[in-house]
Design the sequence.
Protein backbone atom coordinates (compact mmCIF):
# COMPACT_ATOMS: atom_id res chain seq x y z
CA UNK A 1 0.00 0.00 0.00
CA UNK A 2 1.44 3.34 -1.06
CA UNK A 3 1.66 6.44 1.06
CA UNK A 4 -0.99 9.14 0.79
CA UNK A 5 -0.16 12.50 -0.78
CA UNK A 6 -2.16 15.49 0.47
CA UNK A 7 -2.83 19.04 -0.64
CA UNK A 8 -5.11 21.39 1.27
CA UNK A 9 -5.29 25.06 0.26
CA UNK A 10 -7.60 27.69 1.74
CA UNK A 11 -7.72 30.99 -0.10
CA UNK A 12 -8.24 33.90 2.32
CA UNK A 13 -9.35 37.38 1.31
CA UNK A 14 -6.60 38.95 3.40
CA UNK A 15 -3.91 37.33 1.24
CA UNK A 16 -2.89 39.43 -1.72
CA UNK A 17 -4.09 38.03 -5.02
CA UNK A 18 -0.77 39.00 -6.59
CA UNK A 19 1.23 36.85 -4.20
CA UNK A 20 -1.22 33.95 -4.10
CA UNK A 21 -0.98 31.29 -6.83
CA UNK A 22 -3.73 31.16 -9.41
CA UNK A 23 -6.04 28.10 -9.28
CA UNK A 24 -4.30 26.35 -12.18
CA UNK A 25 -0.84 26.88 -10.66
CA UNK A 26 -1.32 24.48 -7.75
CA UNK A 27 0.57 21.21 -7.88
CA UNK A 28 -2.62 19.15 -7.61
CA UNK A 29 -2.21 15.37 -7.48
CA UNK A 30 -3.83 13.47 -10.32
CA UNK A 31 -6.54 10.91 -9.61
CA UNK A 32 -7.76 7.91 -11.56
CA UNK A 33 -4.33 6.33 -11.93
CA UNK A 34 -4.71 3.95 -8.96
CA UNK A 35 -2.23 5.89 -6.81
CA UNK A 36 -3.30 7.06 -3.36
CA UNK A 37 -3.80 10.82 -3.24
CA UNK A 38 -6.24 13.49 -2.17
CA UNK A 39 -6.57 17.26 -2.40
CA UNK A 40 -8.96 20.07 -1.50
CA UNK A 41 -8.78 23.71 -2.62
CA UNK A 42 -11.22 26.41 -1.46
CA UNK A 43 -11.22 29.95 -2.87
CA UNK A 44 -12.58 33.13 -1.35
CA UNK A 45 -15.24 33.44 -4.11
CA UNK A 46 -16.85 30.16 -3.01
CA UNK A 47 -15.43 28.02 -5.80
CA UNK A 48 -13.60 24.84 -4.87
CA UNK A 49 -12.04 21.68 -6.20
CA UNK A 50 -11.33 18.37 -4.55
CA UNK A 51 -10.32 14.85 -5.46
CA UNK A 52 -9.12 11.56 -4.06
CA UNK A 53 -7.86 8.20 -5.27
CA UNK A 54 -8.01 5.20 -2.92
CA UNK A 55 -5.38 3.31 -4.87
CA UNK A 56 -7.87 0.44 -5.06
CA UNK A 57 -9.76 1.20 -8.29
CA UNK A 58 -11.92 3.98 -6.83
CA UNK A 59 -11.51 7.71 -7.35
CA UNK A 60 -13.45 10.97 -7.59
CA UNK A 61 -12.73 14.58 -8.47
CA UNK A 62 -14.92 17.66 -8.75
CA UNK A 63 -14.56 21.39 -9.27
CA UNK A 64 -17.06 24.22 -9.28
CA UNK A 65 -17.10 27.82 -10.39
CA UNK A 66 -18.26 30.83 -8.41
CA UNK A 67 -21.55 30.73 -10.36
CA UNK A 68 -22.26 27.17 -9.21
CA UNK A 69 -21.38 25.27 -12.40
CA UNK A 70 -20.00 21.84 -11.49
CA UNK A 71 -17.76 19.48 -13.43
CA UNK A 72 -16.41 16.19 -12.18
CA UNK A 73 -15.71 12.52 -12.67
CA UNK A 74 -15.58 9.33 -10.63
CA UNK A 75 -14.71 5.70 -11.18
CA UNK A 76 -14.78 2.27 -9.57
CA UNK A 77 -14.55 -1.42 -10.43
CA UNK A 78 -17.90 -3.24 -10.53
CA UNK A 79 -18.50 -6.81 -9.23
CA UNK A 80 -17.84 -8.21 -12.72
CA UNK A 81 -14.39 -6.65 -12.70
CA UNK A 82 -15.16 -3.92 -15.24
CA UNK A 83 -13.68 -0.49 -14.62
CA UNK A 84 -16.47 2.11 -14.60
CA UNK A 85 -15.68 5.76 -15.34
CA UNK A 86 -18.24 8.56 -15.40
CA UNK A 87 -17.75 12.20 -16.35
CA UNK A 88 -20.49 14.69 -15.51
CA UNK A 89 -21.49 18.33 -15.51
CA UNK A 90 -24.17 20.02 -13.44
CA UNK A 91 -25.69 23.47 -13.66
CA UNK A 92 -28.36 25.31 -15.60
CA UNK A 93 -28.62 22.40 -18.06
CA UNK A 94 -29.25 19.92 -15.25
CA UNK A 95 -27.11 16.88 -14.50
CA UNK A 96 -25.47 15.39 -17.59
CA UNK A 97 -23.41 12.21 -17.26
CA UNK A 98 -21.26 10.46 -19.86
CA UNK A 99 -19.67 7.04 -19.77
CA UNK A 100 -19.06 4.02 -21.97
CA UNK A 101 -21.57 1.96 -19.98
CA UNK A 102 -24.35 4.58 -20.15
CA UNK A 103 -26.88 3.89 -22.95
CA UNK A 104 -26.77 6.41 -25.76
CA UNK A 105 -29.81 8.47 -26.68
CA UNK A 106 -31.51 7.22 -29.84
CA UNK A 107 -31.03 9.65 -32.76
CA UNK A 108 -34.80 9.99 -33.24
CA UNK A 109 -35.25 11.00 -29.60
CA UNK A 110 -32.40 13.49 -29.83
CA UNK A 111 -33.94 14.97 -32.99
CA UNK A 112 -37.32 15.30 -31.26
CA UNK A 113 -35.73 17.14 -28.33
CA UNK A 114 -33.83 19.43 -30.69
CA UNK A 115 -37.04 20.21 -32.56
CA UNK A 116 -38.85 20.99 -29.31
CA UNK A 117 -36.05 23.28 -28.12
CA UNK A 118 -36.14 25.18 -31.42
CA UNK A 119 -39.82 26.01 -31.11
CA UNK A 120 -41.08 29.20 -29.53
CA UNK A 121 -42.25 28.72 -25.94
CA UNK A 122 -45.94 28.03 -25.49
CA UNK A 123 -47.95 30.94 -24.11
CA UNK A 124 -51.21 30.02 -22.42
CA UNK A 125 -53.83 32.60 -23.49
CA UNK A 126 -55.76 32.00 -20.27
CA UNK A 127 -52.78 32.45 -17.96
CA UNK A 128 -52.79 36.25 -18.04
CA UNK A 129 -54.76 38.35 -15.62
CA UNK A 130 -56.69 40.27 -18.28
CA UNK A 131 -58.29 39.68 -21.63
CA UNK A 132 -61.37 37.85 -22.75
CA UNK A 133 -61.37 34.26 -21.50
CA UNK A 134 -64.58 33.18 -23.15
CA UNK A 135 -64.75 30.00 -25.22
CA UNK A 136 -67.07 27.08 -25.85
CA UNK A 137 -66.87 23.60 -27.30
CA UNK A 138 -69.09 20.58 -27.74
CA UNK A 139 -68.72 17.03 -29.00
CA UNK A 140 -70.86 13.91 -29.07
CA UNK A 141 -69.91 10.27 -29.49
CA UNK A 142 -71.77 6.99 -29.46
CA UNK A 143 -71.18 6.42 -25.76
CA UNK A 144 -70.12 9.81 -24.44
CA UNK A 145 -70.66 13.54 -24.92
CA UNK A 146 -69.48 16.80 -23.43
CA UNK A 147 -70.00 20.54 -23.75
CA UNK A 148 -68.39 23.43 -21.93
CA UNK A 149 -68.77 27.22 -21.95
CA UNK A 150 -66.60 29.89 -20.33
CA UNK A 151 -67.52 33.54 -19.99
CA UNK A 152 -65.12 36.46 -20.28
CA UNK A 153 -63.96 36.31 -16.65
CA UNK A 154 -63.18 32.60 -16.78
CA UNK A 155 -66.23 31.15 -15.04
CA UNK A 156 -66.91 27.74 -16.58
CA UNK A 157 -70.11 25.70 -16.82
CA UNK A 158 -70.48 22.39 -18.57
CA UNK A 159 -71.88 18.90 -18.65
CA UNK A 160 -70.83 15.45 -19.79
CA UNK A 161 -72.31 11.97 -19.99
CA UNK A 162 -71.18 8.44 -20.74
CA UNK A 163 -72.42 4.86 -20.68
CA UNK A 164 -70.83 2.78 -17.94
CA UNK A 165 -69.91 -0.91 -18.00
CA UNK A 166 -73.44 -1.85 -16.90
CA UNK A 167 -75.08 -0.01 -19.79
CA UNK A 168 -76.35 2.85 -17.63
CA UNK A 169 -76.06 6.44 -18.83
CA UNK A 170 -74.26 8.67 -16.36
CA UNK A 171 -74.87 12.41 -16.69
CA UNK A 172 -73.23 15.23 -14.76
CA UNK A 173 -73.16 19.02 -14.74
CA UNK A 174 -70.40 21.16 -13.29
CA UNK A 175 -69.27 24.72 -12.77
CA UNK A 176 -65.92 26.19 -11.84
CA UNK A 177 -64.37 29.59 -11.34
CA UNK A 178 -63.02 32.13 -8.92
CA UNK A 179 -64.79 31.92 -5.59
CA UNK A 180 -66.59 28.74 -6.71
CA UNK A 181 -63.95 26.08 -6.99
CA UNK A 182 -65.13 23.00 -8.85
CA UNK A 183 -68.72 21.93 -8.14
CA UNK A 184 -70.20 18.85 -9.79
CA UNK A 185 -73.75 17.52 -9.60
CA UNK A 186 -75.26 14.21 -10.66
CA UNK A 187 -77.90 11.72 -9.58
CA UNK A 188 -75.36 9.19 -8.29
CA UNK A 189 -73.11 11.69 -6.50
CA UNK A 190 -73.66 11.58 -2.72
CA UNK A 191 -75.27 14.70 -1.34
CA UNK A 192 -73.94 16.52 1.66
CA UNK A 193 -75.40 15.10 4.84
CA UNK A 194 -77.33 17.69 6.82
CA UNK A 195 -76.82 17.58 10.60
CA UNK A 196 -79.79 16.34 12.60
CA UNK A 197 -81.60 18.88 14.76
CA UNK A 198 -81.01 18.26 18.44
CA UNK A 199 -84.07 17.47 20.61
CA UNK A 200 -84.25 17.85 24.39
CA UNK A 201 -86.70 15.58 26.22
CA UNK A 202 -87.85 16.76 29.63
CA UNK A 203 -89.75 14.49 31.99
CA UNK A 204 -92.03 16.22 34.48
CA UNK A 205 -93.03 14.51 37.66
CA UNK A 206 -96.24 15.98 39.08
CA UNK A 207 -97.32 16.13 42.69
CA UNK A 208 -99.59 13.15 42.11
CA UNK A 209 -96.54 10.97 41.68
CA UNK A 210 -95.20 11.88 45.05
CA UNK A 211 -98.70 11.40 46.49
CA UNK A 212 -98.93 7.98 44.91
CA UNK A 213 -95.62 7.05 46.45
CA UNK A 214 -96.88 8.19 49.84
CA UNK A 215 -100.08 6.16 49.42
CA UNK A 216 -98.14 3.08 48.42
CA UNK A 217 -95.90 3.48 51.43
CA UNK A 218 -98.86 3.98 53.77
CA UNK A 219 -100.67 0.95 52.37
CA UNK A 220 -97.64 -1.21 52.94
CA UNK A 221 -97.39 0.05 56.53
CA UNK A 222 -101.06 -0.60 57.28
CA UNK A 223 -100.89 -4.04 55.70
CA UNK A 224 -97.87 -4.89 57.80
CA UNK A 225 -99.57 -3.74 60.96
CA UNK A 226 -102.69 -5.79 60.17
CA UNK A 227 -100.64 -8.87 59.48
CA UNK A 228 -98.72 -8.46 62.69
CA UNK A 229 -101.93 -7.97 64.68
CA UNK A 230 -103.57 -11.03 63.18
CA UNK A 231 -100.58 -13.17 63.93
CA UNK A 232 -100.54 -11.96 67.52
CA UNK A 233 -104.24 -12.69 68.00
CA UNK A 234 -103.87 -16.17 66.58
CA UNK A 235 -100.97 -16.90 68.83
CA UNK A 236 -102.93 -15.98 71.97
Sequence:
Amino acid sequence: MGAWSHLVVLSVVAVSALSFPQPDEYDIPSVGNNRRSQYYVLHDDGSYKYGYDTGEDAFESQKTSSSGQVKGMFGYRDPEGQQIRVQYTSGQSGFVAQGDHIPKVHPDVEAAFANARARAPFVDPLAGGGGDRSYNFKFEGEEHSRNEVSNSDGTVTGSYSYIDEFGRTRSYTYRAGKGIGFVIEGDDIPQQVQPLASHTTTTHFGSHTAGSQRKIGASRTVASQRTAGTSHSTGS
The radius of gyration is 44 Å. Residues 162 and 168 are 8 Å apart (CA to CA).
